[in-house]
Amino acid sequence: MKVELSTSLHRMAVTCLAALIVLCVGWELWWAPLKPSGSLMALKALPLLFAVRGVLKGSLYTMQWTAMLSLLYLMEGLVRAWSDLQPASAALAGLEAVLALGLYLAAILYVRPAKRAARHG
Question: Following DSSP, what letter does each residue of 69-112 receive, concatenated?
Fold first, then answer.
């Protein structure tokens, strides 16, 4: 049962990370960029790329800092969903918030058993 949960959390983290990268790039270059020709805001996906290898491997250390990094994307998504005047951009911001929250929860819950074992043993 614990192995299945760990595998599901790992899959969820990988899926949310990949979707967040695609969303950040697509949003700022094609779907609803700040400028009609695309925006350098697409570079916000760059920090996420550093996490890909470790998250794919299931590295506890990478999962920890990726969880903290995802909070930045959650904040941006919430702020832009609330304040963006373009409906498409606001919707994409809402999606960013959902994906970032999913990544955060999956990463934290994935790391939790190892942290608990280290504390007690």
Answer: HHHHHHHHHHHHHHH-SSHHHHHHHHHHHHHHHHHHHHHHHHHH
Please tell me whether residue 59 adopts helix, strand or coil conformation: coil
pLDDT digits (tens, 9 = 90+) for 76-121: 999 999 999 999 999 999 999 999 999 999 999 999 987 787 787 6
How many structural domains does the chain have? 1
This model's pTM is above 0.70: yes
Q: Tell me 32's DSSP state.
A: S
Distance CA 77, CA 7 (A): 27
Over residues 72-86, the pLDDT tens digits come to 999 999 999 999 999
Residue type, 111: V
CA-closest candidate to residue 58, choices 5, 20, 107:
107
CA 59 to chain centre: 16
